[in-house]
Amino acid sequence: MGGVIGKVLCMRLTGGSNTVPDAFDKLRLAGAVARQMLVATAAQKTNVAAA
User: Fold this and answer.
1) What is this structure's pTM?
2) 10 Å Cβ neighbour count for 29?
3) Residue 50 in contact with residue 43, Cβ under 8 Å?
4) With 39 labelled, which of 25, 30, 47, 48 sits at a CA distance of 20 to 30 A?
5) Rounded Cα–Cα distance for residues 38 and 45 (Å)
6) Non-local CB neighbours of 36 within 8 Å, separated by 6+ positions
């Protein structure tokens, strides 16, 4: 029931078996953005192409 109430109220609750499945897309996007930032910074600092 907490999951349903949390979704209705747009709350992010931790714990339980739904935490990762419910946030999977957002977590995946955050990881991809962080990776791109790290690759770009490393490329800039080492003067090597990011590709």
Assistant:
1) 0.61
2) 10
3) yes
4) 25
5) 11
6) none
- Identify the pLDDT of residue 41: 96
* Contact by Cβ (8 Å): 19, 13: yes
CB-CB contact of 41 with 22 (8 Å): no
Q: Which residue has the tokens 């931790």?
A: 14
At 50, the amino acid letter reads A
Q: Which two tokens stand for residue 41?
A: 């910074």
Sign of CA dihedral 15, 18, 21, 24: negative
Residue partners of 50: CB distance under 8 A and separation at least 6:
39, 40, 42, 43
Q: What is the pLDDT of residue 4?
A: 60
